Amino acid sequence: AAKESGRGRWARYTPLLGEHSRRQLAIEQGLRNALERGELMLHWQAKLDLASARITGAEALMRWTHPTLGPISPGEFIPVAEQCGLIDAMGQWALREACRAGTQELAGLTVAVNVSPAQLLSGHFLDHLRETLAVSGLEPGRLELEITESLFMEDAEQALQLLRSIRQTGVHLALDDFGTGFSSLSYLRSFPFDTLKIDQSFVTELLSKDQSRAIVRMIAELAATLGMRTVTEGVETMEQMQAVRAAGCDEVQGYLISRPRPLAEFQRSFEAEAATKVAG
Ligand code: C2E
Ligand code: MG
Ligand code: MG
Ligand code: MG
C-alpha cells in the first residue's frame, strides 16, 4: 500500500516506511515456515448458478494467520510469496487440499483453485497436477484453475502450450479478474478457457454507469458465442445480482451469496443459504 501512496508521501512519512519494511520482512520470514507450521488454511466461497439457483461450485481462497501479526490478507502475502519463490510450494499445497476436499466434504461441487503464473511456469506444474488428481481421485472435470492475464505477459506462447496441456487432462480453466489488466480479446480466441470471471470492479459500477452495463452485456455475449461461461465476482446486493442476471451472466459469486468460509462451515451452510438468498 505504501508503494501506491506516491512519492511526496514517502518523504513525509519516513517513520512509517521503516515500519512498512519491518512488516514486509516479518511476512517474508513468517511465510518460510507457514506451511510446515500448519498456519495456512483454505476458505471456500460459493458460486451460484443463476439458471438453476443452485450452488454448483466453490473457490478456494488461501488464508494465513501469522503467529504474532495475526491474519494477513492474500492481497498482501501472495505477492511476497511470489517474489520469494515460495508460491510454488504453497500453491501445490492448496491444490492438494482442494482436490482432497473435492472428493470428500465438497463432493458434487466444482472446486476452483487460484494459480499464480510463477507456479504455472515452474516446469513441473503439469506433472504435479496429474499426480494430485491421481492421488486424490478427483474427476478432472470437477477441478477448475483460475488464472489471471498476467500469465500472458511472461511468455504467451509457452503459456498457451501449457494451458492446452492442462486442458487435455480434462481440468477446466477460468480467466480470473477479466476486464482489468490488459485484456486482449485475441487471447479469448486462442486460449482454451472454459470460464470468464468478470472482475468485481464492473459490478460496483453496474448500477451507476451505463458503460459498465454495456461492457458486461458485451462480455457475456462474447463469452456465450465463444462457448464460455461467465461468472461475475463481488456481487454484494440483490440489485447487483439482478443487473448481472439481466446482462446475461451465468453465475455469481460474492458476499450476497456467501463470504469465504472455513471448510466445515461452508459445508454446513451452503445449501440452506443459497435457497434463502435466491428466493428473495
Ligand atoms: P480472486 O481470485 O479474484 O478472489 C476474489 C477476492 O474477492 C477474494 O479476496 C474474495 O474474498 C473477495 N470477494 C469475494 N466476494 C466479494 C464481495 O462480494 N465483495 C468484496 N469486496 N470482495 C469479495 P481474497 O480472499 O482476499 O483474495 C484476493 C486475491 O488473492 C484473489 O483474488 C487471488 O488472486 C489471490 N489468492 C487467494 N488465494 C490464492 C491462492 O491459493 N493462490 C494464489 N496464487 N492466489 C490466491
Ligand atoms: Mg479467483
Ligand atoms: Mg478475481
Ligand atoms: Mg483478484
Molecular structure report:
Residues 24-274 form the EAL domain. This is PAS family GGDEF/EAL protein. The protein is α/β, with parallel strands linked by helices and 280 residues long. An 8-stranded mixed β-barrel has the order 1-2-4-5-6-7-8-9, surrounded by 7 helices. The chain is built from 13 helices and 10 strands. Mean pLDDT is 89; it is low at 1-6. Bound molecules: ligand C2E and magnesium ion (3 copies). Residues 59, 114, 146, 176 line the site of one magnesium ion (MG). One magnesium ion binds next to loops.
List the helices and strands and how they pair.
Blueprint: H1 7-12, H2 14-34, E1 40-49, E2 54-66, E3 70-72, H3 74-83, H4 87-103, E4 110-114, H5 117-120, H6 125-136, E5 143-147, H7 150-154, H8 156-168, E6 172-178, H9 185-190, E7 195-198, H10 200-206, H11 210-225, E8 229-232, H12 238-246, E9 251-252, E10 261-262, H13 263-279
Parallel strand pairs: 2-4, 4-5, 5-6, 6-7, 7-8, 8-9
Antiparallel strand pairs: 1-2, 1-9, 1-10, 2-3
The structure holds ligand C2E and magnesium ion (3 copies).
One magnesium ion binds at residues 176-177, 197, 233.
Domain EAL: 24-274
Protein name: PAS family GGDEF/EAL protein
